[in-house]
Input
Amino acid sequence: MKIQATNNSVWVIRDETKKEVGALLLPTSGRTKPHTGKIISVGALTRDPKIKVGKIAIFHQTVGQEVVYEDVTYTVLVDEHLIGITDAISK
Amino acid sequence: MQSANNKILVSCNLEQKDFAEIGGNMLKIANAYNPNFREKSPVISKAEETNGEIVKGDILICHHNHFYGSSPFWLVDDLFSIPCNKTIFAIIDKEGNPKPVNGNIIGERLYQDTKIEQPPEFRKHYIDRVKVLIAGYGYAKGQLIFTKPYAPYQICYTWNMIERRIVKVDKEMIIGQEN
Output
């Protein structure tokens, strides 16, 4: 990982949208963005010790800043934006 | 006279707040070069007392909000007592180089790559990342840092008629760094 989060930011790679067989193909802008993602890096000033690299973060769909770096799209959240932490999303 | 409550006394001639002479060299701030008004008109002032990293006699580049005729920070003649915080962006040394102060990082703007070469006025710059020009506050020279959108604030000045463009970022606005 070449990027290190600073301050109270949390870098997340958003989970991919599920593709269902037989469903209509919507343009990217029409798809509902998933509101979960894998935590890649955590800033040193993050207040909740439960926020750790490798965990799954749950957040509201509209929060976060999209940063594209080396063809990877990251979602950067402030620690307050996280509404849940889990090890894995149950199907 | 002394300042109080972590303020600093600075002198600034309101009719000449965009230029200063340092050891025979002319420093001039560009005060209308971008339609984004948030990015224009930093002011040159001179420190009249020492506070923290700023030493008496330093030439400072400051945010413009403190310097106008009826400003609550105005004391007498051309003397102002302004907060000694991140609204003071940099000190200009005798070679015309900026030195970041009060938690500001000095960097340079990065432009987006395009497949075909474009004239400078059509080049788009990144709104969320800069390259560090001067090491400080834990960041090394040349390091790529990511910021909140539109946090980088461009300062354009001429030093002996040679234009220089730098970008300052408040360190609290940094969200990540390249290792």
Remarks:
- The two ends of chain B are 47 Å apart (CA to CA).
